[in-house]
Design goal:
binds cobalt (II) ion, three-stranded antiparallel β-sheet, 17 strands, alpha+beta, binds 2-amino-4-trifluoromethylsulfanyl-butyric acid
């Protein structure tokens, strides 16, 4: 089957005068830039729904933050997420998503992302761990992840990696101005990571989010300024840079029977932070604080 391609042309509402947003989008479209389709601009009701999903997602990650400790199994983290979700009448988006068997991703050290919780896997002092959770509430999605340093202390090298990965997310958020391009975000992130000789993962990206788990556009964490889709107010998307201490190259772990767990090629550590963001007239608003 030939796949459907979205032409990414901005549709005008017939009989209505062009808004300032229409004009701005058409300006860039006429210069050959990729622009969003109208369905990517969320309505106020949709934004409110995504905001509520975001608040629950934050409560889930806060509950994990309060409980995470050395000796805990990664399955226990899954249990905590499930319990908070249940209490709030929400659902974990990861559970059974394309065969993913658990409700949260827990990725330790050289595991870049999509780590599967297991009753036999225990957190050790000095591990750096990413916990990535996505909430569905009333049909709306919010997606965020944080790093945890188990026992509160690790090597200076891993501490720096965790800090710089967080700075990469923050720098990406600052670069995300209304009517900027996706490539402006990736370019800013890549520049910061490269100051430390860190690798920026290319195989996995941020994404539109809100009505579905993964929507357009893809948000690469590297690239050229001015490339990729135009970002306009009302769009909701994630930024989630995966920053490696060594090479940017990653593989799916052949030992994972589910084919999900991603590890660094050189088995050096990796760190990631993620937020769901709303583009506004001034910049991005974080919906997962
Ligand atoms: N939460 C991840 C993201 O940031 C996606 C995880 S998909 C799963 O996009 F199936 F592994 F859970
Ligand atoms: Co996520
Ligand atoms: Co995401």
């Amino acid at each position: 089957m030939i796949q459907k391609k979205n032409r990414n042309t901005w549709s005008i509402i017939p009989g209505q005068e062009l808004t300032a947003m229409d004009k701005e989008i058409l300006y860039w479209q006429n210069r050959g830039k990729k622009v969003p389709t109208r369905d990517l601009i969320k309505t106020p009701e949709q934004i409110e729904g995504i905001r509520q999903a975001g608040a629950i997602n934050t409560a889930v990650l806060d509950a994990v933050a309060a409980a995470i400790r050395p000796g805990m199994s990664t399955q226990e983290i899954d249990d905590i997420c499930m319990a908070v979700c249940k209490e709030k009448n929400a659902t974990p988006a990861c559970l059974n998503y394309e065969g993913f068997p658990k409700s949260v991703c827990v990725s330790i050290n050289e595991c870049v992302c999509h780590g599967i919780p297991k009753p036999t896997q225990f957190l050790e002092e000095g591990d750096i761990v990413n916990v990535d959770f996505t909430t569905i509430y009333n049909g709306y999605y919010a997606d965020a992840s944080r790093m945890f340093i188990i026992g509160g202390k690790t090597t200076p090298e891993k501490e720096q990696l965790v800090r710089v990965a967080k700075e990469c997310l923050e720098i990406g958020m600052e670069a995300a101005k209304p009517y900027c391009f996706v490539g402006d975000i990736g370019n800013a992130i890549q520049k910061h990571a490269h100051k430390y000789n860190y690798g920026v993962v290319k195989d996995l990206c941020g994404h539109g989010v809100g009505i579905k788990f993964h929507e357009e556009p893809e948000i690469a964490h590297y690239g050229k300024k001015g490339s990729g889709m135009l970002l306009v107010p009302g769009m909701t998307f994630t930024i989630e840079p995966m920053i490696n201490m060594g090479t940017w190259r990653v593989f799916v772990d052949a030992d994972d029977p589910y084919g999900w767990e991603v590890i660094t090629e050189d088995e050096m550590p990796s760190a990631q932070w993620e937020h769901t963001l709303l583009m506004t007239d001034h910049g991005v608003e974080v919906l997962t604080y």
